[in-house]
Amino acid sequence: MRPHGSPKELEQRRQRAISLLREGYQPVDVATMLGVDRRSVRRWKATHRQKGEKGIRAKQASGRPPKLDNSYLRKQEQRLVESEWKFRTVSESANDWVYWLSESGEIVYMSPVSETITGYSPEEFQNKPDLLVSVIHPKDRNLYTNHVLNFEDERHEEIEFRIISKNGQIKWLTHICAPLYMQNKFLGRRINNRDVTDRKMAEEELKKYREHLEESVKQRTAELETRTHELARSNADLQQFAYAASHDLQEPLRTVAGFVKLLEKRYKGRLDEKANEFIKYICEGVDRMQLLIKDLLIYSQVDTKERVFKPTNCSVALESAIRSLRSAIEENEAEVTYVSLPTVMADASQMSRLFQNLIGNAIKFHDRKTVRVHVSAERKGDEWIFSVSDNGIGMDPEQADRIFVIFQRLHSKEQYPGTGIGLAICKRIVERHGGRIWVESEQGKGATFYFTIPNREGNT
Fold it and tell me: Which single residue of 57, 182, 362, 455 has CA 20 to 30 Å from 67?
């Protein structure tokens, strides 16, 4: 397909196309700019080349050197100047130290940033080629030379090494080499170095801080383990002492109780009223002491058992507790109701003791004619929440935590008898099973005790 137009227009297009081709434009770009097909542009280019070659051969035959188009040479020279200017502007305005090495390892170009980073000017590197290696820290030179001087290695791996600047300061650089090729010929490498001294110093400080923190944690952990071991041993000793003391105290108390009762029986009516009152006080004191020792023995034995839990029907454990409290229930005309309770992984005897203490407390602390106690359970998430509620005297909410501490009482023994150990035993049993215990109450409005048992395998 030939381009349309008058011969004059066609000649103008042809001259314009030749001019653009001289300036370095590709035929496809010239065809687009002039609105002609590519084949016409290629044909004009070939014709122009043939004419030029003929003219050059003719001038060579005549013995005169060929003359090139001065405008074309000037434009190509201008392009080279602009390209070099752009490269130098980018290289010299950057913060990185850039240099080029030839195929033989000679310095082709060195950016002025070399003086900012190393203290040595580009001229010093040019005049003293060994300086490029000697500026590297002795311990890092092998790393540098193996990476940089292996010119046929085409990898672009980044490495880090130290340099010693002109003033003796040690700096850290990140270093990357890029191979340079032209028409598949290896020309050398372009090297880019960046000063990362601040980052490395921050990393070193962070490393020291982390090591210090790890050492502190290790020491603290060792101290805690030692204290935990000592505390466990102390608790074991205390449990053993409580068990031994309470067990050994039983015999002399029984002896005292036996002789006091014998004294009361043999001399009843033969002593004055004061003596009878003294004997009564002794008997009551002995009874309280026996009860206290009994509860203390139970408290010390809660954690002495192995932690082996079996499926325990809580309804059966509750019924066992109710049977143990039958006398107190009948005496106080109490009503104890409950819904069907779940089967959980637990110690059956301790679950029965737990219900017995909580219901016994509800029966004891009341001021009404009819005592009502209700037991229920509800599953929430991965645990069962049990509740024991009553219509008793209640308590101040601020005292809710105090009542679970051993020997802590909110009332005198004259008002409400007891040892102050019952709820402490409950807390210890619940915690042994991995649960929690708390109370919600108001003065004069009864109380509800809650405790949890984890939903382990086997719970239903």
Answer: 182
pTM of the model: 0.45
Question: Which residues are bridge partners to 449 per DSSP?
Answer: 388, 439
Question: 101 pairs with which residues across the strands?
Answer: 107, 189
Which residues of the chain, if any, have pLDDT below 50?
Answer: 1-2, 53, 56, 59-60, 65-66, 68
DSSP letters, 75-128, are: HHHHHHHHHHHHHHHHHHHSSSEEEEEETTS-EEEE-THHHHHHS--HHHHHH-
Q: What angle do CA 44, 49, 53 make, to 5 degrees?
A: 150
Say how many CA atoms lie within 13 Å of 334 toward its Cβ: 28
Angle of the 27-34 helix axis to the 7-22 helix axis, nearest 10: 140
**Cα dist from 208 to 18, 99, 198, 211, whole Å:** 70, 35, 15, 5
Please give the C-alpha separations between residue 194 and each of 88, 210, 306, 419, in angstroms, as whole numbers. Answer: 17, 26, 66, 78
Q: How many residues does the chain have?
A: 460
Beta strand segments in 146-239, E: 159-164, 170-182, 185-195
How crowded is residue 391: how many other Cβ atoms within 10 Å of its Cβ?
A: 18
Amino acid at 84: E
381: left (phi over 0), alpha (psi -120 to 50) or beta: left
Task: Please tell me whether residue 312 adopts helix, strand or coil conformation.
Answer: strand
Q: Are 453 and 346 in contact (CB under 8 A)?
A: yes
DSSP structure string for 328-346: HHHHTT-EEEEPPPPEEEE
Is 292 within 8 Å of 417 (Cβ atoms)?
no
What digits encode the pLDDT tens for the residues 68-122?
Answer: 455 655 665 566 556 555 656 656 666 888 888 888 888 888 888 889 899 999 8
The values of phi and psi at residue 42, to 5°, are -65, -40
Q: Which SS3 state, helix, strand or coil, does residue 395 take?
A: coil
Burial 307-338 (b: 16+ CB within 10 A, else e): eebeebbbbebbebbbebbeeebeebebebeb
Q: Distance (Å, rounded) from C-alpha 27 to C-alpha 43?
A: 10
**259-270 exposure pattern, b = at least 16 Cβ within 10 A, e = fewer:** ebeeebeeeeee
Which two tokens mark 436? 């929690």
* CA 298 – CA 282 distance, rounded (Å): 24
